[in-house]
Amino acid sequence: MTRNVKQPRSIEFNLVSNAQDSIIRAVGLLAWKEIANDGSRMKQAIMSIAHGVELLMKERLRRAEPALVWEDIDKYPKLDARTVTVEKAIHRLRHICGVNITDEDDRLLKSLRNTRNAIEHFDSAAAS
Q1: Which of 36, 50, 73, 92 is most exposed, with minimal Cβ within 10 Å?
Q2: pLDDT tens for residues 74-97?
Q3: Does the CA dihedral 39-42-45-51 come out positive or negative?
Q4: Quick check: helix, strand or coil at residue 26?
Q5: pTM for this one?
């Protein structure tokens, strides 16, 4: 007996579609309150928007030169190598890609990263 079993579809993604997913998720969390707890919603929204913004910066680097996405460009394109930090992405975007990132944009990006890091890596009760 033969069964008609559908083969699983491969998951296809890229930096832009991943960024869009994260940003849409952040907007949805803020607009539709699918999570009742305001603290949890804000935490998830901040993490999602930070993720989306970071991926958009990496996409801009990739468009200039794919190796720029990797922390150590000599390791491009190894998937087990680290990609750039937000700080390094900003530096490369400004100094290699010629992207105009204002000081205010720089402060906002770093503030978003710091807030995301505080959520992911620290105990807010211990920091009080």
Answers
A1: 36
A2: 999 998 999 999 999 999 999 999
A3: negative
A4: helix
A5: 0.83
Residue in this structure with the two tokens 């991926």, named with its chain if needed: 55
Which token pair is 103?
């000081």
And the tokens for 122? 């620290």
Q: Are 43 and 115 in contact (CB under 8 A)?
A: no
Question: DSSP for 91-120?
Answer: HHHHHTS-----HHHHHHHHHHHHHHHHHH
pLDDT digits (tens, 9 = 90+) for 96-122: 999 999 999 999 999 999 999 999 988
Encoded tokens for 127: 């920091």
Chain Cα centroid distance, residue 3: 41
Backbone angles phi, psi at 77, to 5 degrees: -110, 40
**Tokens encoding 36:** 């009742």
Nearest CA-CA partner of 121 in 49, 43, 45, 9: 43
